[in-house]
């Protein structure tokens, strides 16, 4: 039984890795068309079915490639209309709402703002998420697990988890807010993701336990539970950041 389960898990991870490679290939080719000028500012991309036919990949691959370009600020999705070129170059990865890592108060301010926005996002995601969006949230959660197992920085995977929740609200403004704040909204990216720093297993396990409660509540369509799980997660982040800074002082 355990061996069969392990084989299934390995096969599933292999399929996901293969799909991720296809997403990277498709995304890179579309980026080259935009950055090279083949696709102009404001121009509509081919339809999802058209891109599926062109690249001989699944709709899921196309959607993830588009989502990646959207995160970089290259395209915008107009629901019911299509995908349009938004910019000729990616937005700067630091985002527009800058945070000063040297000021504890700056980090806390951002976490408070995130709590106000993302608590509601979690509730809306629980109410509105599609099966594909539910799967995307779970996959991003598992990406954090894999980063932990490999003992590499987890902040990037953590950010993608929160983006997947934002997408599941089916309100593009939530993703836009996170994109504006940038990946540095994950506090430990300032402190723990440098080569000479190592996050404790207990620290990351606690964060993942909180992520799991959020993901499960959204999957169960429990709006109240999702909001409360997100609120507690971000409140806990505030306290953890204070504690980490104190230990380093």
UniProtKB/TrEMBL annotation:
Top-rank taxon, per record: Bacteria
Gene3D superfamilies: GntR ligand-binding domain-like, Winged helix-like DNA-binding domain superfamily/Winged helix DNA-binding domain
UniProt keyword annotation of Methyltransferase present: no
InterPro entries per the UniProt record, alphabetical: GntR_C (IPR011711), TF_FadR/GntR_C (IPR008920), Tscrpt_reg_HTH_GntR (IPR000524), WH-like_DNA-bd_sf (IPR036388), WH_DNA-bd_sf (IPR036390)
Domain HTH gntR-type span(s) in chain numbering: 20-88
Molecular function terms from GO: DNA binding; DNA-binding transcription factor activity
PROSITE patterns: HTH_GNTR
Keywords for this protein: DNA-binding, Plasmid, Transcription, Transcription regulation
Transmembrane segments: none
SMART domains: FCD (SM00895), HTH_GNTR (SM00345)
Presence of keyword tRNA-binding: no
Protein name, entry field: FadR family transcriptional regulator
Species whose genome carries this gene: Rhizobium jaguaris
């Amino acid at each position: 039984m355990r061996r069969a389960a392990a084989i299934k898990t390995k096969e599933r991870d292999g399929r996901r890795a293969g799909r991720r490679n296809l997403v990277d290939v498709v995304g890179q080719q579309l980026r080259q068309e935009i950055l090279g000028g083949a696709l102009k500012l404001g121009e509509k991309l081919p339809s999802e079915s058209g891109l599926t036919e062109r690249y001989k990949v699944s709709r899921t691959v196309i959607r993830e490639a588009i989502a990646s370009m959207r995160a970089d600020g290259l395209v915008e999705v107009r629901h019911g209309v299509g995908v349009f070129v938004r910019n000729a170059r990616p937005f700067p990865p630091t985002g527009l709402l800058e945070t000063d890592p040297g000021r504890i108060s700056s980090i806390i301010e951002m976490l408070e703002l995130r709590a106000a926005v993302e608590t509601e996002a979690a509730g809306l995601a629980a109410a509105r998420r599609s099966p594909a969006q539910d799967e995307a949230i779970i996959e991003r959660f598992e990406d954090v697990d894999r980063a932990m197992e490999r003992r590499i920085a987890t902040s990037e995977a953590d950010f993608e988890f929160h983006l997947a929740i934002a997408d599941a609200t089916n309100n593009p403004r939530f993703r836009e807010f996170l994109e504006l704040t940038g990946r540095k909204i994950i506090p430990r990216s300032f402190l723990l993701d440098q080569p000479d720093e190592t996050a404790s297993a207990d620290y990351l396990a606690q964060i993942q336990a909180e992520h799991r409660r959020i993901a499960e509540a959204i999957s169960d369509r429990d709006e109240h539970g999702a909001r409360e799980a997100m609120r507690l997660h971000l409140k806990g982040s505030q306290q953890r950041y204070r504690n980490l800074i104190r230990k380093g002082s």
